[in-house]
């Protein structure tokens, strides 16, 4: 005989346990979200007031396309061609550069650059052509500026730089 404290696993009892567990799970799935969901009404009423954006401004007339004068464009193109093909050293387009030295060893040219830079006479740069590395200062927009730089280099470094015409088409790349 079995006592009431002993539990026997009857098939009906196990079935009822599964049904109870499924019921509790379904209630938890339905009731817990309802309990845990915040009140959105209070968020909407407590938040900032939203207003409609203003309409964009109305523009009076559509933008006008620029008027291009073909005769003026042709004249400008002709002036540009004339300036690009002008000989070096004309009064209108003259510019000059100082050649301070030419070296077979690039290290020697770099040492001269380091001596010229503190003088602050202009931009100092190197140009390597075949076996020579040349040291230049400039360009200068007029001959007087170039001659002033020559006198500074002569006084400070005892070198005699040469003033040469500067053409950006040939000498502009460094």
Report on this structure.
- With 174 residues, the protein is of the alpha+beta class.
- The protein has a domain at 96-169: Sporulation related repeat (Alpha-Beta Plaits, 2-Layer Sandwich), CATH 3.30.70.1070.
- It is built from six helices and four strands.
- It has helices at 11-36, 40-46, 70-84, 106-116, 143-157, 168-171, and strands at residues 96-103, 124-129, 132-140, 162-165.
- A four-stranded antiparallel β-sheet has the order 2-3-1-4.
- It starts with 10 loop residues before the first helix and ends with a helix.
Describe the secondary-structure layout.
Layout: H1 11-36, H2 40-46, H3 70-84, E1 96-103, H4 106-116, E2 124-129, E3 132-140, H5 143-157, E4 162-165, H6 168-171
Antiparallel strand pairs: 1-3, 1-4, 2-3
Please give a quick description of this structure.
This protein has a domain of 74 residues: Sporulation related repeat (Alpha-Beta Plaits). It has 174 residues and is an alpha+beta fold. A 4-stranded antiparallel sheet has the order 2-3-1-4.
Largest sheet: 4 strands, antiparallel
Assigned CATH superfamily of the domain at 96-169 = Sporulation related repeat
Return residue spans where pLDDT drops below 50 for at least 5 consecutive residues: none
Just give the CATH class of the domain at 96-169: Alpha Beta
Strand order of the largest sheet: 2-3-1-4
Derived from helix and strand composition plus strand pairing, the structural class reads alpha+beta
Task: Let me know the average pLDDT.
Answer: 79
Q: Nearest-angstrom radius of gyration? A: 45 Å
Helix and strand sequence: HHHEHEEHEH
Gross geometry: elongated
Q: CATH topology of the domain at 96-169, what is it called?
A: Alpha-Beta Plaits
Proportion of β residues? 15-25%
